[in-house]
């Protein structure tokens, strides 16, 4: 048995820290020297079968704890990080990246934290620059803007939550469904009650009666999502809180919004487990409606989940997601596609996202061309919330998924758009220099408006060269 040995440095160090032990403490427990513990943690010495057995016996551990430390995932994240243009000109091979992770796991973790902070600061600076151009307010203290930056810096992907949710999804399936799992695991009965009794709530946890109460007007997709989100609060509070703390959000409201966003992320990952969903999207060629039917989810839930599929090593098409009401107000925005959507001011009226209200529940596709020539592909449709019974208010919104042109051939929607001319749109009127746009509502910054004493253009404003 002594011949069996493995290198478990990062896992061993994490275990020791979680137990609140020093290297000397662990060395004493294992009857080895502190220097030997340090060498094992630094992957300079292997962890033998005998040491593994001592660890399991002394600390009452499940041996499966050492089965996977996420090293492949961390390696994929590091390799992805090194592809950032900021590192262009520096030749670092994948083998060198693997060597860094193996030999200096602490440095690798520090590198990932630093890179994430760098991306966050990039987004903050971009927001500040655009706010200055637009004459808008400083979003530094805006909790919604803070959470959007927090999600965007991580490409709206949290692999740790996906792994935990996937395990929970398997347990839920074995139990026979979410209501059965809640009863078996938490002694909570699921009850559906009339809207008037719920008093404005769609979900409520009644610990006194050991019940999870749901509004009986919720459709099945919403019921499942609410139950999965309740499980996020019951079982993954620590994991979610850890990510929220890493965000360094400025306000308590921001931290609460981030917590709620990650609980929603976890819920989506339970009803649409990453591995299964990632395989399905390729098989279905990103057909949102077909995926909704397969997983028993709504169009919006499915579209939202598509933005999260950036797990290192299992990436899918990166999408930009947006939800607006009929007045153009943005209520949700998630970005993993580098789509330069305006963070200030209104959007472009030429984008069909703002026109799909005239064709409810019909998917509308569109090629988009930005002023700098970038091409994107848009999938838009209306979605509804509320209602469920006569007289209850219903809210209609529009959602859109946008991806870069390089990915479009993988989409089922592409086959009907091979010969369509792209629509020239702008990020926002004040940043768009297209002088012939008849849909313009404001003149662009930095252009002198011409008088119309002798000539009136088709466009609302005429500009100097």
From TrEMBL:
GO BP term, pick one: regulation of DNA-templated transcription
Span of domain HTH cro/C1-type: 12-66
Q: One GO molecular-function annotation for this sequence?
A: DNA binding
Q: Which family does it belong to?
A: Belongs to the short-chain fatty acyl-CoA assimilation regulator (ScfR) family.
What name goes with this protein? Answer: HTH cro/C1-type domain-containing protein
| Organism per entry | Rhizobium lusitanum
């Amino acid at each position: 048995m002594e011949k069996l040995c493995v290198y478990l440095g990062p896992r061993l160090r994490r275990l020791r820290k979680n137990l609140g032990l020093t290297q000397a403490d662990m060395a004493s427990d294992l009857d080895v020297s502190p220097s030997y513990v340090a060498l094992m943690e630094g992957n300079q010495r292997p962890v033998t079968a005998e040491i593994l057995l001592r660890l399991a016996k002394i600390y009452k551990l499940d041996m499966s704890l050492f089965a996977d430390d996420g090293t492949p995932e961390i390696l994929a994240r590091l390799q992805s990080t090194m592809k950032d243009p900021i590192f262009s000109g520096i030749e670092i091979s994948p083998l060198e990246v693997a060597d860094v992770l193996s030999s200096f796991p602490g440095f690798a973790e520090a590198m990932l934290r630093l890179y994430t902070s760098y991306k966050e600061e990039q987004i903050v600076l971009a927001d500040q620059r655009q706010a200055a151009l637009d004459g808008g307010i400083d979003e530094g203290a805006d909790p919604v803007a803070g959470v959007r930056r927090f999600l965007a810096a991580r490409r709206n992907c949290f692999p740790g939550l996906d792994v935990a949710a996937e395990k929970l999804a398997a347990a839920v399936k074995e139990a026979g469904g979410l209501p059965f799992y809640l009863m078996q695991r938490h002694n909570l009965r699921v009850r559906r009650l009339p809207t008037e009794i719920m008093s404005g709530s769609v979900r409520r946890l009644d610990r006194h009666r050991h019940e999870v109460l749901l509004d009986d007007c919720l459709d099945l997709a919403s019921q499942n999502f609410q139950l999965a989100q309740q499980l996020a609060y019951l079982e993954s509070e620590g994991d979610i809180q850890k990510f929220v703390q890493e965000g360094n959000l400025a306000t308590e409201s921001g931290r609460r919004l981030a917590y709620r966003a990650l609980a929603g992320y976890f819920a989506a990952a339970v009803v649409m487990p990453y591995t299964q969903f990632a395989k399905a999207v390729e098989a279905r060629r990103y057909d949102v409606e077909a995926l909704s039917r397969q997983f028993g989810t709504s169009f919006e839930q499915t579209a939202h989940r598509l933005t999260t599929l950036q797990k290192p090593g299992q990436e899918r098409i990166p999408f930009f997601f947006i939800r607006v009401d009929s007045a153009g107000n943005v209520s949700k925005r998630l970005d993993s596609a580098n789509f330069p959507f305006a963070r200030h001011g209104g959007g472009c009226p030429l984008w069909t996202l703002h026109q799909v209200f005239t064709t409810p529940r019909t998917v509308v596709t569109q090629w988009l061309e930005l002023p700098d020539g970038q091409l994107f592909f848009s999938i838009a449709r209306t979605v509804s919330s509320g209602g469920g019974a006569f007289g209850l208010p219903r809210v209609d919104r529009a959602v859109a998924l946008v991806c870069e042109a390089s990915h479009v051939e993988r989409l089922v929607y592409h086959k009907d758009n091979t010969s369509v001319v792209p629509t020239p749109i702008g990020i926002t009127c004040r940043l768009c220099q297209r002088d012939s746009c008849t849909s313009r509502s404001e003149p662009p910054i930095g252009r002198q408006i011409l008088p119309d004493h002798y000539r009136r253009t088709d466009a609302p404003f005429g500009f100097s060269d």
